[in-house]
């Protein structure tokens, strides 16, 4: 391994120790995936040296890749296992989808910006994760009814309210939806768990995401 790659590997290991394990991330499968997927491969050259810092980074088209802790937290809250089928809304760089794929999930992810979707496709192909991740272009705020029921649905953009279509596409046997809900400038991270016709909801705390734009989200 050359020196640069060794340094990057060290930075990633430190990120897992300090920012994830050092806070409240305990799920060993989430920690392993975060330690395995190279976040530096999902950001532009200009910000690559910041790839393992405790903050979101720009990914083009005015969008951002979330802070590592938030990706880990949302993944942990989703409570999914290897083999589970998961829907992600807001592919962005493809990093969150890569984390879910590294955990063995079968992922469908939807992005409204065709350019971002194409770049994400290339990254996942380069990392050999494209066999278990399908990237679609479109409005994910209405979900993907052709793939329901979903074991988990993770929304990586902020919605004004829990999108009704996503709720209904959850697996009735304990499927979970993780979605930031609130006004454009600050939200609560809401976790919805479905059991039959019962939907239990709780907030995991304050977060800040770019808006979900579409039928089940904000109008442009
Ligand atoms: N999960 C991403 C970060 C997502 S940022 C990552 O790991 O990099 C939020 C993304 O949601 C943006 O790329 C934005 O274009 C997308 N988005 C917003 N509204 C959407 C919608 N209705 N359907 C699909 N994607 C949407």
Stretches with pLDDT under 50, minimum 5 residues: none
Give the helices and strands as they follow along the chain.
Answer: HHEEHEHEHEEHEEE
How much of the polypeptide forms β-strand, as a percent range?
25-35%
The biggest beta sheet, please? Answer: 7 strands, mixed
CATH topology annotation: Rossmann fold
Which superfamily, in CATH terms, is the homologous superfamily?
Vaccinia Virus protein VP39
- The number of strands is 9
**Which structural class should the secondary elements be placed in?**
alpha/beta
**What's the gyration radius in Å?**
16 Å
List all distinct small molecules, including ions and cofactors, that are bound in this structure.
S-adenosyl-L-homocysteine
CA distance, first residue to last residue: 47 Å
Let me know the average pLDDT: 97
Structure summarized in a few sentences:
This protein has 220 residues and is of the alpha/beta class. The model has no long low-confidence stretch (mean pLDDT 97). 30% of the residues lie in helices and 25% in strands.
